[in-house]
Write a structure and sequence with these properties.
Blueprint lengths: L1 H23 L27 E3 L6 H8 L6 H5 L16 E7 L2 E7 L22 E2 L2 E2 L25 H5 L2 E3 L1 H4 L4 E5 L11 E5 L8 E12 L5 E16 L4 E8 L8 E4 L19 E7 L11 E4 L12 E6 L3 E3 L6 E3 L3 E11 L4 E8 L8 E3 L2
Antiparallel strand pairs: 1-2, 2-3, 4-5, 6-10, 7-8, 8-11, 9-10, 9-12, 10-11, 13-14, 13-20, 14-19, 15-18, 15-20, 16-17, 18-19
């Protein structure tokens, strides 16, 4: 009974809340209730979209799609209908994109200037029929060494890689079990008061002598979910170290440092990073429900292009490239007309793109924010 009253109250009061937003100048948010995602809905083209767009240096696939789509992360759907674009991840500065409709479906058409395409002399050389030998109706083709011509321009990336480059191979989240066997610095080899690049250090716990290059990290804050369960620890990047002599302890040279190295700092193998071409935005394979549990650099208000930590990981089937919508929990307000209280629906306030996953946690980049986000905001399927 109480639930029915609450739902009826929400239905009648919500339009008044939207009107108040417009009158009071409160920042606009998308009035999309939680659970009404866009995954299976038709593409929504922006009313003010350009008819043609010329790709320039510094563009990203996300930026370009933002000119055309309400939900830029769905750009593969906008391009996959066009056979001209064999690989939508390979778009270059100078390309011209035109929005057309094929069988009623919006599609981007690619027009590449002629000076960016191979000339006839660069195409495969084939003898004329009069020169070729014919045997049982099969044409003999003489193959000659050819020069493959490729554009000097690099294909534009999915997102601004600079925003996440430091997290692709130097940022790390470690679990409690990993800490048990992690090598650590016991002292400076040269008795320096301040240890930095160019100094040698002694390290205990090295068991794999086939790995010579490590990153030095310092144990940071504990990462817990909303129920207080420990999911891992933040590993703060300190620098890089190269093994010189293996032993007990082993001797390492600090090749690069971002901050002072301390006794007790940990050594982790340098990972190869995540290929940026794998950042193809898409919805998760199954329904997910998590939270933002931390933000890098510890700011309170989270905005576009900031990196956040989610309490979802590989064990939840979360993958690199997955897009999640961010929602803020609706407030419970007092009904000044009929009395009692009413809970405002959860509000969609942005989108994040997952770019690195761990067992129980992941890093995500805020791609769109209609208002500041906060730790404990919810993340679900878009």
């Amino acid at each position: 009974m109480t639930e029915n009253i609450l739902l009826r109250s929400t239905r009648y009061l919500w339009p008044l809340c939207v009107l108040a937003v417009g009158l009071l100048g409160i920042p606009e948010v998308q009035a999309v209730e939680r659970g009404t995602g866009y995954e299976n809905s038709p593409l929504v083209i922006k009313k003010d979209h350009p008819q043609r767009y010329s790709v320039v240096r510094g563009d990203t696939l996300w930026d370009i799609s933002d000119h055309f789509l309400r939900d830029p992360w769905r750009w593969p759907e906008l391009w996959q209908k066009n056979q001209q674009i064999d690989n939508p991840h390979l778009i270059y500065p100078g390309d011209i994109l035109t929005l057309v409709y094929i069988d009623g479906v919006p599609t981007l058409q690619l027009d590449r200037p002629s000076d960016m395409s191979p000339s006839p002399s660069q195409e495969r050389m084939v003898e004329s029929p009069s020169q070729a030998r014919v045997y049982q109706d099969y044409e003999t083709v003489r193959l000659s060494p050819q020069i493959r011509v490729e554009s000097l321009e690099k294909a534009i990336p999915t997102i601004q890689i600079d925003a996440i480059s430091q997290f692709l191979n130097r940022a790390k989240i470690v679990t409690k079990n990993e800490l048990r066997d992690t090598p650590y610095i016991v002292s400076s080899a040269d008795e320096h008061l301040i240890i930095g690049a160019g100094n040698r250090v002694f390290v205990r716990g090295i068991t794999n002598e086939s790995i010579s290059d490590y990153m030095v990290v310092r144990l940071g804050r504990a990462l817990k979910n909303r129920k207080g369960k420990l999911l891992g620890y933040e590993a703060i990047y300190v620098g890089d170290a190269h093994a010189q002599i293996f032993g007990s302890p082993s001797t390492f040279m600090l090749t690069k440092t971002k901050r002072e190295v301390l006794k007790g700092d940990l050594l982790l193998p340098i990972s190869s990073g995540i290929p940026t071409q794998d950042l193809h935005p898409r919805a998760p394979k199954r329904d997910l429900d998590g939270n933002i549990i931390a933000v890098v650099d510890g700011v309170k208000r989270i905005g576009q292009y900031q990196v956040v930590v989610l309490d979802l990981g590989r064990k939840d089937e979360l993958e690199v490239g997955n897009v999640l919508a961010v929602y803020q929990e609706g407030e419970t307000i007092r009904d000044t007309v009929k009395g009692g209280s009413v809970r405002i629906p959860d509000q969609r306030v942005g989108v994040v793109l997952v770019f690195r996953t761990f067992d129980k946690l992941s890093y995500a980049l805020v791609m769109d924010a209609t208002r500041p986000m906060h730790v404990w905001d919810m993340v679900i399927n878009p």
